[in-house]
Amino acid sequence: MADTTGALTEAVYYILLSLFKPMHGYGIMQNVKALSRGRVSLGAGTLYGAIGTLLEKGWICPAGNTKDDRKKEYVITETGKTIVNAELERLEELLQNGRRITGGDES
């Protein structure tokens, strides 16, 4: 995981994308696997460690009140959305530079 100016890990990026709608841990694991077409498979320890860090950073927060802690849902915050948008800009720059240098872009 990175700070607000660095690159996100692929797992954190997909966790944040997953939380644009409220989701519990198992749902996040399934969604990350689906989004990455099976390339990223999160274990429970990895996921909940990342959730703890993302909560501390204020990038995600609990979504409403759930009576069952095992089904606690999380959602991305405005700060988290800013982080995702910054990562999208960073990735776009990487793609543009790579395409320009390798000849994959006409511009």
- Sheet/helix structural class: mainly alpha
CATH superfamily: Winged helix-like DNA-binding domain superfamily/Winged helix DNA-binding domain
Mean pLDDT: 90
Low-confidence stretches: none
Helix content: 55-70%
- Can you tell me the CATH architecture? Orthogonal Bundle
Count helical runs. Answer: 4
Query: In what range is the share of β-strand residues?
Result: 5-15%
What order do the helices and strands follow? HEHHEEH
Tell me, what's the shape?
Answer: elongated
Radius of gyration, CA atoms, in whole angstroms: 16 Å
By CATH reckoning, the class would read: Mainly Alpha
Spatial sequence of strands, sheet with the most strands? 1-3-2
DSSP strand count: 3
By CATH, the topology is Arc Repressor Mutant, subunit A
Number of individual domains: 1
State the separation between the terminal residues, measured CA to CA: 33 Å
Main sheet attributes: strand count, strand direction, barrel closure: 3 strands, antiparallel
Mind explaining what this structure looks like?
- The protein is mainly α and 107 residues long.
- It has one domain: Winged helix-like DNA-binding domain superfamily/Winged helix DNA-binding domain (Arc Repressor Mutant, subunit A), CATH 1.10.10.10.
- It is 55% helix and 8% strand.
- The chain contains 4 helices and 3 strands, in the order αβααββα.
- The chain has a 3-stranded antiparallel β-sheet.
- The longest helix has 25 residues.
